[in-house]
């Protein structure tokens, strides 16, 4: 990275991770006037791409490989961003400001941004070496699944979280007989409550997906390829493919004794880690929200966090990150949206009808302040709900439930 004399005529910022957070960090740095060298690296060899469509539009053939690229390849050259793919970082030295790579050179940096995303949780189950058992995280995974599914009639999905639910939706629409096996009685109840959890289950069952709860897969059977799964409850489910979606954890493999990484790289409101000149953005972080650290894995957060942190690299500690968490999920003909963050709540308020699949559930604290809200097929509520969560004002609960009163008036 340095010249022959070991010196550089401009600063160097290295970004580890070329997902949505890393790409937006690089682009924002350049667009906000950063004049130094930008090196964007990733262990993946694919051009940077958007991950959410892998389980939805891309899987169903509604968009092609080019359609999920985060940026046109020429953009990186235009913005003078050095894109280094297939590079695995093995260690960093904050004192010397260097990083080492597997089977490659060492790099020097002035500023370092960790945009390493998250890693899949995996299961260890007898028979898990059979062909036809998949995890979905990268483009290579999606390609393998898509190619394999051509002759699949029955598929089992382990886990009823959003990845599993979106895969179930896509595969059901592709004409595949889908069974979901979920360990808990009410999937994602701890995040959204029992009402919303029940609506998830009902949505999938109404679309022909069998959902088995309070059970777990204990064995895969087959000769060379998976042919059935066996559950703890004694069920034997025939299948030709299995997708495992049991969650993710922040990817904090780039480590150092001085780098705090409890539940993600710990950053302050400016994206600064516990080590000077090292920043972290997106899914791999734990960041302050309403006075407490939180960790979320949202596309929208990754974009906005990267932009704010990049600005603070150019203008140190000038703009704190005051983002309201938001994510969405498309399943069948339903769009789910969620604003805010509420690990606990004192009460919920329903606006609309669960039965019609058009409703908003509000999560309030004991002072009747809306901490979060879940929307199902009510996009018109998105803007006033976001404002409500941002403003943190005491709400009239009866008016909140009354669809005859406009939300902006509430």
From TrEMBL:
Q: Residue ranges of the Reductase C-terminal domain?
A: 326-409
In terms of superkingdom, the source organism counts as Bacteria
PANTHER family from the UniProt entry: APOPTOSIS-INDUCING FACTOR 1, RIESKE DOMAIN-CONTAINING PROTEIN-RELATED
Q: What class of enzyme is it?
A: oxidoreductase
Give the range the annotation lists for the signal sequence: none
Name it: 3-phenylpropionate/trans-cinnamate dioxygenase ferredoxin reductase subunit
Q: Which UniProt keywords apply?
A: Dioxygenase, FAD, Flavoprotein, Oxidoreductase
* Record carries keyword Signal: no
Q: Which cofactor does it need?
A: FAD
Residues forming the FAD/NAD(P)-binding domain are 14-306
What's one GO MF term for it? Answer: ferredoxin-NAD+ reductase activity
Which Pfam families does the protein's record reference? Pyr_redox_2, Reductase_C
């Amino acid at each position: 990275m340095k010249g022959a004399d070991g010196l550089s005529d401009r600063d160097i910022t290295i970004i580890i991770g070329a997902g949505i957070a890393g790409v937006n960090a690089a682009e924002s740095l350049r667009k906000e006037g950063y004049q130094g060298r930008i090196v964007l690296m990733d262990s993946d060899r694919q051009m940077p791409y958007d991950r959410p469509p892998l389980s939805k539009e891309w899987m169903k053939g509604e968009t092609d490989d080019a359609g999920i690229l985060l940026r046109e390849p020429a953009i990186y050259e235009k913005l003078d961003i050095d894109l280094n793919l297939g590079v695995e970082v093995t260690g960093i030295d904050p004192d010397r400001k260097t990083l080492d790579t597997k089977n490659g050179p060492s790099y020097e940096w002035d500023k370092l941004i960790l945009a390493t995303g998250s890693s899949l949780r995996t299961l260890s189950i007898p028979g898990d070496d059979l062909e036809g058992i998949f995890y979905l995280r990268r483009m290579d995974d999606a390609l393998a699944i898509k190619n394999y599914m051509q002759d699949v009639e029955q598929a089992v999905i382990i886990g009823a979280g959003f990845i599993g639910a979106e895969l179930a939706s896509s595969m059901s629409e592709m004409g595949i007989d889908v069974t979901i096996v979920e360990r808990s009685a009410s999937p994602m109840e701890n995040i959204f409550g029992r009402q919303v959890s029940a609506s998830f289950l009902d949505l999938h069952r109404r679309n022909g997906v069998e959902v088995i709860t309070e059970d777990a897969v204990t064995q895969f059977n087959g000769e060379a390829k998976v042919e059935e799964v066996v559950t703890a409850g004694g069920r034997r489910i025939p299948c030709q493919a299995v997708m495992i979606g049991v969650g993710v954890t922040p990817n904090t493999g780039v480590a150092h004794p001085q780098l705090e990484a409890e539940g993600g790289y710990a950053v302050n409101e400016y994206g600064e880690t516990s080590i000077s000149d090292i920043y972290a953005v997106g899914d791999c972080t734990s960041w302050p929200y309403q006075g407490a650290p939180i960790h979320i894995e949202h596309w929208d957060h990754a974009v906005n966090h990267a932009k704010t942190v990049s600005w603070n690299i150019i203008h140190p500690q000038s703009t704190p990150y005051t983002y309201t968490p938001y994510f969405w999920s498309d399943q069948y003909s339903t769009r789910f949206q969620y604003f805010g963050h509420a690990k606990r709540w004192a009460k919920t308020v329903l606006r609309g009808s669960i039965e019609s699949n058009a409703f908003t559930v509000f999560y309030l604290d004991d002072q009747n302040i809306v901490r979060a809200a879940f929307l199902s097929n009510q996009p018109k509520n998105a803007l006033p709900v976001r404002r409500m969560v941002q403003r943190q004002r005491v709400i009239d609960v009866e008016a909140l439930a009354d669809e005859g009163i406009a939300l902006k008036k509430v």
